[in-house]
Design goal:
Elements: E1 4-7, E2 14-22, H1 29-45, E3 54-62, H2 67-87, E4 92-100, E5 104-113, E6 129-132, H3 138-147, H4 151-157, H5 163-178, H6 182-190, E7 195-198, H7 203-213, E8 219-229, H8 232-238, E9 257-261, H9 263-278, E10 290-297, E11 302-313, H10 319-323
Parallel strand pairs: 3-4, 8-11
Antiparallel strand pairs: 1-2, 2-5, 3-5, 6-9, 6-10, 7-9, 8-10
Helix pairs in contact: 1-2, 1-5, 1-6, 3-5, 6-9
GO molecular function, one term: ATP binding
Function: Synthesizes selenophosphate from selenide and ATP.
InterPro entries: PurM-like_C_dom, PurM-like_C_sf, PurM-like_N, PurM-like_N_sf, SPS/SelD
Length: about 325
């Protein structure tokens, strides 16, 4: 499971707790702090929990940093983490800082709750629909942005993408990773979700397989659609599938929730995700959710069909995003209707 759920001695309550940390992957220290916090909270949100009682921050300062860099970078990272925690309705009350060869940032999130506040990730049934709440391709976007300064790497992808498109995709990935999955967690209750997980380091297929393996019923997940940040599929192909993006194993950081919903609720879930995201500070075209597959009777495994439909998700603020109002249309694949 994404969190540990520990029944407490005090009647009917459980302690739900999670921890996560990683190395910086974007250039902006403040945004890195926000991403790290969103990533920690995401494990709670994957269980339908919308409130967090407390957070601790884990921080490792690189011994290679001089005093000037340290005094500039680390407070920004801490502020980003705290601001995201505040957005999630919680606060950071402590933690641990160490010196290490590398910068590491992460934390712990804890909440005491009643059984009706969380959704165990094991109730999928045949006929359910799979929904994903953030586009894929963050790893590709971050790497492509680094390659702008590496001519040898850039030469491999410059025929399929412009520098401007890479910069837009990088911004989209950064804001997507820093977006809390809290809205989706609340809607899981409203639309009777049967199971969910968040998509992070193992990629979409890795986490779909983990979730399928936990199900009480004999089910399999079949993925038909892949919503991907625009141009990232082309970059991945130009690199000889270095990232395995379309194969579903490209690592994501602070990705969306993969949710199993009753068929009759999935379109409403997507529609409400889009409307709530649009009103939440400029989520733009990427805010929302996509129907990506189905749950059928099977051997508790997940698979992506041979030729999945790629849904190109335009970065917010781009010309394509301003023209695109249909990115969360529920009717996205004849196979699913």
């Amino acid at each position: 499971m994404d969190c540990c759920v520990i029944p407490l001695r005090h009647g009917g309550l459980s302690l739900v707790q999670t921890t996560d940390f990683f190395y910086p992957l974007v250039e902006d220290p403040y945004m890195m702090g926000r991403i790290a916090c969103a990533n920690v909270l995401s494990d709670l949100y994957a269980m339908g929990i919308t409130e967090c009682d407390n957070m601790l921050m884990l921080l490792s300062v690189s011994q290679k940093m001089n005093d000037k860099d340290r005094e500039k970078v680390m407070p920004l990272m801490i502020r980003g983490f705290r601001d995201a925690a505040e957005e999630g309705g919680t606060s950071v009350t402590g933690g641990q800082t160490v010196i290490n060869p590398w910068i590491i940032v992460g934390g712990v999130a804890s909440v005491v709750c009643q059984p009706n506040e969380f959704i165990m990730p094991d109730g999928a049934v045949p006929g359910d629909v799979l929904v994903l709440t953030k586009p894929l391709g963050t790893q590709v976007a971050v790497n492509a942005h680094q390659w702008l300064e590496q001519p040898e790497r850039w030469n491999k992808i410059k025929l399929v993408v412009t520098k401007e498109e890479v910069k837009e995709a990088y911004q989209e990935a950064m804001f997507s990773m820093a977006t809390l999955n809290r809205t989706a967690a609340g809607l899981m209750h409203k639309f009777q979700a049967h199971a969910a997980t968040d998509v992070t380091g193992f990629g979409l297929l890795g986490h779909a397989n983990n979730l399928a393996a936990q199900q009480r019923n004999e089910v399999a997940f079949v993925i038909h659609n892949l919503p991907i940040i625009a141009k990232m599929t082309a970059i991945s192909k130009a690199c000889g599938n270095l990232f395995n993006l379309v194969q579903g194993t490209s690592a994501e950081t602070s990705g969306g929730l993969l949710v199993c919903l009753p068929r009759e609720q999935a379109a409403k879930f997507c529609s409400e995700m889009k409307s709530q995201s649009s009103g939440a500070g400029g989520q733009g075209a990427s805010g929302g959710a996509w129907i990506i597959g189905i749950v059928e009777k099977g051997d508790r495994r997940a698979r992506i069909i041979d030729k999945p439909r790629i849904i190109e998700v335009p970065p917010r603020g781009s010309q394509a995003a301003n023209q695109d109002n249909s990115s969360t249309s529920p009717d996205q694949n004849p196979n699913l209707s």
